């Protein structure tokens, strides 16, 4: 298939397009105003209110220990459940799938266990041994309710935790779906509900919710990258349903996403090596799936300054026993942003199909995304002679004041799994992605404290094709008193990138405080052919086993992954190979232990390694080993922590040390002589602390230093772009005197940050406040949700920093209003 031409005009409107976009904006605005004027308040039930005992709810609770499954059921049903651990010890449950009242759901879960649930005053239940009246002469509890429905898929999103903001578990690569309390790592799974309520447009908005995650590029830059625990995580390294290389390359929209799973620290042993060598953590995007209840949700909205948008989310199941499901999401937004002279146009289309039977489950995800930003902003580089960072300019400043970026992504992913027996499941998945991207942009360089900067522009094109595959088998068995959950897996990723780079655009000088805009240089008549740039092949084999001791009180996970890394770089000006082919391999382990002092309290410890592609020694007469290829760099993380699940809210406290080596020149030899060591403590909280009040966030402290360096002067210095303190705390309050009304707020704090290796340049600390309100109502018996969110409420001007030393300006005050109706 021929690649589409990225030589696009600066004005994206073509004949009839602008008129249709203007008409679409007017229709959306009228829809918002009409719904706001016509809403009829109703007595809306809080999502965290206790469920009436006879009301039926849909449950999709995966198999696990009886304690885990009962706790999940209680959280979903909004009931208090008293459990004596001695009664449930050693007992397992196949989970629950289907619609049940609370009493019937408890009966189904306890069938065959010799236990029963007895109601207590209020909305509580207590688990006790079954009475004689419910036991037959053989001593077995009568199965009054039979659990029917499909078996949960290995990578199906676990149930929501109390409050609906996060999931009760996450996909942990080769370890499969794992409950948070059973995971020897720090992990948070952000839900579609929290994405919708915060009107999150991309993964960048999730960074405002996590204390160990920060943006490392501007919101309207070409790319949206993150730092996690002080190390960079590229947007190109996000995973889609557990596979790398398939998400939109520069920016990942969230309208089609059910969960955003954030796993902290290097995870090569769990997921395999990321194609861009990120080691700070893994961001896994879980696509939406159709539920048993049909859904047709239409959302219209406006973002300041005049960015209008619409989103349709349609899903349902059909066929015998609802074995087939389809979920369609379509989104478009366009208009002017809060940045001077900037406009953007974004479109998304996704279709998620799935098939589920007792022994066979399969899914197909199709994703198309397009984004255009006119007057794209870039990050600032720092001039070597700079003595101090200039004061931050107005946050609406456009820099360097011209250019555009235009990208189109097409991805698809097929997954299937088959139960060979009750104990053994085989699985396989395969996906592809095509990116066609181009941009005219310039990298500004700060020259002095007066805010002067120089820039040199270029026209860049980068077509990219990726294939990703995973296959394996999982099994459960026992060796005496020890239960095993074992997985053998294989992954393969092939990615080819081409590059066309024209650097002849005229340079210039501007100033941060003038806010000057320029005309985008013309590229008419310029031949910018894309030629081979980089080919990467990643192949791995992994074997992992989670062992359960003492009635699941002790869980021990062990795993080894053999990773082979191959690649070839090219001179994009000629398309000829540049240097020798990279061909190295490494083995990365994972060790994790979880000890449950009681079902609600877990202690954990883990050791895991990550991989980055090694560098190649430069070709130079001054280097004694020119062209030598370094083996893959191993990043290592040690972590210990405690997790507490109160039933209504969940907290994690962790201590970690993460090291990553780096290469450089010592004397005349190129080698791995440097190392960055990040030691820290992290605390997170999620859930409903008191009835009607939900919190989400936490705080982290990181001591990031250059523990090894070629230069003795740099050893012991603070690492670039890693603040010591970070804190994010969001809260929601369901206003009791006006049912349906919820007030929200968030505080985001980042401490001062060094932005050069000598620690002579730093940016000051900053704090940002966000606020919002939402209201649940009905229009003609249809549920409607109005949402108003304000990011950067006080319009704070601040600098952000990347670990490479780049600076960018924080997002201006941005107002988002939307109205959603379920038809």
End-to-end C-alpha gap: 39 Å
Largest sheet, in brief, is: 25 strands, antiparallel
As a whole number of angstroms, the C-alpha radius of gyration is: 27 Å
The total domain count is: 3
CATH class categorisation of the largest domain: Mainly Beta
CATH superfamily descriptor of the largest domain: TonB-dependent receptor, beta-barrel domain
Architecture per CATH nomenclature, i.e. the level-2 architecture of the largest domain: Beta Barrel
Give the proportion of residues in helices: under 10%
Shape: globular
Low-confidence stretches: 1-53, 132-149
Query: How many E strands?
Result: 50
What's the helix count?
6
Pfam families: Plug (PF07715), STN (PF07660), TonB_dep_Rec_b-barrel (PF00593)
Membrane topology: Multi-pass membrane protein
Signal peptide: 1-44
Organism: Nitrosomonas europaea (strain ATCC 19718 / CIP 103999 / KCTC 2705 / NBRC 14298)
Short characterization:
The protein contains six helices and 50 strands. The protein has 823 residues and is mostly beta strands.
Protein model, in words:
This protein has 6 helices and 50 strands. It starts with 16 loop residues before the first helix and ends with a strand. The chain folds into 3 domains: 57-134, Phage tail protein beta-alpha-beta fold (3-Layer(bab) Sandwich), CATH 3.55.50; 154-287, TonB-dependent receptor, plug domain (Ferric Hydroxamate Uptake Protein, Chain A, domain 1, Beta Complex); 295-822, Maltoporin, Chain A (Beta Barrel). Strand 42 (725-734) and strand 43 (741-750) form a beta hairpin. It has 823 residues and is mostly beta strands. The radius of gyration is 27 Å and the shape is globular. Helices cover 7% and strands 51% of the residues. It has a 25-stranded antiparallel β-sheet that branches. Strands 11-17-18-15-16 form a 5-stranded mixed β-sheet. A 4-stranded mixed β-sheet has the order 24-27-28-32, with no helix packed on it. Belongs to the TonB-dependent receptor family. InterPro entries: Beta-barrel_TonB, Beta-barrel_TonB_sf, Plug_dom, Plug_dom_sf, Secretin/TonB_short_N, TonB-dep_rcpt-like, TonB_sidphr_rcpt. It is a multi-pass membrane protein. Residues 79-130 form the Secretin/TonB short N-terminal domain. It is found in: Cell outer membrane.
